[in-house]
Every structure is written in structure tokens, then in C-alpha cells.
Amino acid sequence: MKRTGLAIDDTPSSTTYQQLQRTPKRLLQTTSQLQQNKSCLTHFALLRLGPKITETVRGKLSLGMRILQHGSVEKIFRRVFNVKEGEVLLKASQCNLFTTSGPIAGLLFISTDRVAFCSDRTIKFTSSTTADSIRFHYKVVIPLKKITRANQSENMKKPSQKYLQLVTTDDFEFWFMGVLNYNKTFKCLQQAIIQA
Description:
The protein is an alpha+beta fold. The protein contains 4 helices and 7 strands. A hairpin with a 6-residue loop joins strand 3 (114-126) and strand 4 (133-143). The radius of gyration is 20 Å and the shape is globular. The chain starts with 11 loop residues before the first helix and ends with a helix.
């Protein structure tokens, strides 16, 4: 067996890990420079996780690490949502789910059976009776058969800010914003609803 100059303990996974170890430091330096010129960041407001862009970067790095750990977005979908046999993931997109307490960043999954959302970061919930707290990922699952329509919408003052609205049979609305690959995601969603 011929050696290629790699040390015995160098593996692709450890090299990737080392690169990811250095990446946050570079990103944090870059984001602190960008924060000095906030005007260039205003159009990213919908994609923010919190009051600081560094929190957004940490969230995106966390998502990237999760994808690396599981191997693919499809494996994350299968693990998080207990996928039935025969169900196929059609599209996955990063976005924010709008809630009464504000937007929650995560992944929107469109499959042959459902539309699902899972937050990038865990949310802390404290019980009012016992004062115990737990952390969990915010999840939403909507069977395609329960979706009556999907609508496109945009901010009248800022047309670049587009939204997806899902309305269910019980007239409940779900709003997704900051959807990456907006047009492709909407077309895939429409096709999935029609075929359900």
C-alpha cells in the first residue's frame, strides 16, 4: 500500500473537522467587520435568528454541522420526522417560519406525503407549574391532504421579501419567509399538493 504523504491519523472526517474548527473564527471576524456597515445587511433582516448577525452565523454553522453529521438533508428528514415507507423527500429549503413570537429559522421539507418544518436551533420551554425547563426543536408537520391552498405573497414596500402561505382545511395559516430558492420551492409545493 503506497502512502500519499498523509499522517496515519489524517482522515477526511478529521480534516473536515479541523477546517470547521477554523471557520467560525474567520466568520466571526468577517461578521464583526460587516456589522460596522449595517446598511449593507438590511436586506438580510428576514434571515436573522436573533439581534446579532453572529447568532445567525452560529445557527447556520450548527445546521451545516448537523447535515455533515447525518450525511444529507434527506437523512435529517427521515430521522426527525419518522418517515413512512414509500414517502419521498421532494425538496428541502432553508427558511423562517413566522410565529406569534417572531420568525424561527429552520428547514422546510416537502415530501410526497407532507410539508414539514424543523428549527435549526433548539427552543427552551419552562413549565409554569414545576419551573423545569426542556430544550427541543420546533417542529411542524402538515399532511398534504390537509392543505387547501398555497399562496405567494410579497412585502409591498420591499418586493424582494417574499412569503409562502399555506392554508389548511381548518383555516389555519402557516407563513414561511426568507425561503431560499423561492420559486423552485413554491413550484414543488404546488405540484406536491396537486398530486396528493
